[in-house]
Amino acid sequence: xxxxxxxxxxxxxxxxxxxxxxxxxxxxxxxxxxxxxxxxxxxxxxxxxxxxxxxxxxxxxxxxxxxxxxxxxxxxxxxxxxxxxxxxxxxxxxxxxxxxxxxxxxxxxxxxxxxxxxxxxxxxxxxxxxxxxxxxxxxxxxxxxxxxxxxxxxxxxxxxxxxxxxxxxxxxxxxxxxxxxxxxxxxxxxxxxxxxxxxxxxxxxxxxxxxxxxxxxxxxxxxxxxxxxxxxxxxxxxxxxxxxxxxxxxxxxxxxxxxxxxxxxxxxxxxxxxxxxxxxxxxxxxxxxxxxxxxxxxxxxxxxxxxxxxxxxxxxxxxxxxxxxxxxxxxxxxxxxxxxxxxxxxxxxxxxxxxxxxxxxxxxxxxxxxxxxxxxxxxxxxxxxxxxxxxxxxxxxxxxxxxxxxxxxxxxxxxxxxxxxxxxxxxxxxxxxxxxxxxxxxxxxxxxxxxxxxxxxxxxxxxxxxxxxxxxxxxxxxxxxxxxxxxxxxxxxxxxxxxxxxxxxxxxxxxxxxxxxxxxxxxxxxxxxxxxxxxxxxxxxxxxxxxxxxxxxxxxxxxxxxxxxxxxx
Length: 569
Prior knowledge:
Layout: E1 2-10, E2 20-23, E3 29-33, H1 42-52, E4 73-81, E5 84-92, E6 96-101, E7 104-105, H2 112-124, H3 128-135, E8 136-137, H4 150-160, H5 164-253, H6 257-287, H7 300-381, H8 383-421, H9 426-448, E9 454-457, E10 463-466, H10 480-501, E11 508-512, H11 521-534, E12 539-544, E13 555-562, E14 565-568
């Protein structure tokens, strides 16, 4: 049970720089009175602001700071749960959010939102909506249970019955299901990959064992063929090289022919020129007895000698030319033979080069084939290693299959748990268990207020109204006074349920202007009887304008506004 002890505030709304303090535990019944705007409802806003960081009424946080002083807004609430005392301090300008346990301030390293979440889940055990349904009934901004959405109604009930843990569990399970589904995807891919590896490794081993030896023999035959070709090409190269050497030797014998031809051609030219000169001289002396230049007679003997000498020399020259032509012909033949040998040598050398290329190609193929043979031989020798790899793949595949099956079993279990923890599962069964009691209490309180209807809530917290004078009625069909009685009956019922569950039970009950709007005189009297004699373990605070109610309460708290500031007198 949460035992609220006191609350104090300053510079909050219309309150000034002096603390206003209310003790919650001095009297069972209390009335807070004051004129409109005096600040009597400030306690509602101060309480919800201290606990949940927001006002009860629709007031923005910056508007909570006193508009005159404009700073140092501060609210403190003290309460105890079992043997632990708690104090919550909140402030604006500067911002303050402090939680004290047994006088010691808790670590403030966490973010404010995380602190608030921890406070609601671990200390208060309820959120703002649930708190207002069992602690506060207001006439202005308060939203009664029957005016909440279906989801919010359920949220309140789950808080009261302490079954929100199932929702939290369901969230955890949902996330776990998501994670496992991702793991299943990964495992499925791994299984497919390992299956492919097993298949490929099996084929690889089969190829090694069935084709390895045959392939080795085939490749060795190809090696022998290539070696034979190498030998053949080597022989061709050797033979060609021998021919080249032979032709080179023959070339040595006929070498120099070109040079001799050049010299012979020069000599022939000189002889031919000399013969031409002698021919002219012979013709001159033969045809002339007088020198045509000087007109002197040429001596006959001299002329005859010249003619004879020219004839003799011409004959010798002609004989030399004949010999020279023969020598030239001989050297020309030697030159043609030299060129023919050179051509043959070039042809042979090209053939040698081609054979050497072929030899290199054959040798490369031999090396490649021998490497393949060695690899195949090693593979055959290492069959056990490949078998070990295959067994490893199979073991991993089996492990993956088993893990996958286990994950599928786990997700089936989690799916089942998820379905149980959904709104239609365990929570609904628990709610069904409490619904008769809830409906019984609601109608009990309605009868106490002389409102004789059968008001029933179903599993979805939709109402059914049965009454001889109220046919096909719903909550919205009633008058404001009747609605107020239903709201009060539900409020008292929720407090009774909270008291039974204890975790969300509280001593504090605050009602704002319930006597000033909708309750008639008769309803007021019945309500006060319920407050004084039926509501157990409660410190009740009624906010009202009616001064006629003073004597009906053990304590009267009066607020007034002086010079723009609210104060308690």
